[in-house]
Amino acid sequence: MTALQVRVRIARTPDLSSTGAWSTVPVQDLVTTVEQQPDALVYTFTLKPGARLPSAEHVFAVQYGHAVGGRNPSQDSYQATATADGTRVEVEGGF
Predict the structure, then answer these.
(1) Beta partners for 81?
(2) Does the predicted TM-score (pTM) go above 0.90?
C-alpha cells in the first residue's frame, strides 16, 4: 500500500472519553489522531507520505471509557481508504 487512512467514529454517550489507540503498523509509518467532536470521538490512522505497507493483515484498535453499564455500539462506524498499485479501494461499516 502506498496510501491508507482508517477512521473510526465512536458516537457520543455519557462520560465518553478516549483512553488510547494502537495499530500493528510500525509507529514511524503512521500518524494517529483523536478528535473530540460534539457528537463523537473520531480516531484517524493515516499512513505517512512515502511510507509503504506490505500486503498483510494490519490491526487498528481504539480504546475509550464510558459511563458505568453497557454501551450500545450501533451508532459507531468505521471507514478505510487504501491505495495499492495505483488502485484505490474503500470500505465502511458499523459495529
Answers:
(1) 5, 90
(2) yes
